[in-house]
Amino acid sequence: MWQRMENNATSPTLRSPGGTIGTVLLMIGMVLASSPLAEAREAPRQSGPLNFDERQCGRDTLKRRVNGRLEVVAKAETCLLFYAYDPLAEDNDERDYGIAWVQARIDPRGAWCATDVWSDLVVSEDTRMHKHTPGRNFKIGKSRRVKVKLTSSANGFGEENASLSEKTRIYPRRLRHSRFIFDRSRVLRQRWTGQRGGVINLTSGAELSWEEGDPPDAISSGLLYDFERRGRC
After folding, report:
1. What is the pLDDT of residues 146-193, one digit of tens each?
2. Using 50, 70 and 90 to split pLDDT, how confident is the model at 40?
3. Residue 137: which domain range?
4. Residue 72 maps to which CATH number?
5. DSSP code of residue 158
6. Distance (Å, rounded) from C-alpha 215 to C-alpha 225?
7. Which of 68-77, 87-96, 127-136 shows the lowest mean pLDDT across its residues?
8. Which of 155, 157, 154, 151 minimizes the C-alpha distance to 91?
9. Partners of 72 in the beta sheet?
10. Domain count, the chain
11. Cα distances (angstroms) measured from residue 71 to each of 65, 131, 161
12. Is residue 11 predicted with pLDDT exceeding 70?
């Protein structure tokens, strides 16, 4: 059993056309994977020698007081899924392998428009991140359906390929990804930039490895976002 997973979303910033109107610190708490909202998105399609280990989701409703009235700005959710590559299907005696998969969802409400959304996958620095998806950046003028897929061969030690895949829709204008090290952790960041008043789904995943029998203490997913109150996005 995977030792521990954490989900949190931090520092969403609310903006108006005139500039920043406030900053809210939001910590998304754990919810059971069986809750109705946590099942809002289906699990990715799975093939090959992968064993599903765990799914945990965090969610919250962000509110802001405007002209004396409390408005719902957005509902947010981040889900973290982990799949272990079957150790009997790979021949590396020193390391074990798996895939971490993140499903993030922002649902703006009322007059609020999302302008930036960041979805992070975070692992400890001693956990290796071999490959990730999406593997490219997008700059688009209209929405399009894409297939997010990650194929794992246990970094070349596997007897056969395993994969996870999921179809999603991306929206204008830009979707980018980056990898970096921060505070002794490895971060895979996906960032959407645009202007949208409807649901935004972000999907990402990474092939990981760690010393055999010594998995990381935690894998975490983070969600950050900016909003403007415009009336029409």
Report:
1. 999 999 999 999 999 999 999 999 999 999 999 999 888 899 999 999
2. low
3. 5-229
4. 2.70.240
5. B
6. 30
7. 68-77
8. 157
9. 63
10. 1
11. 6, 41, 48
12. no
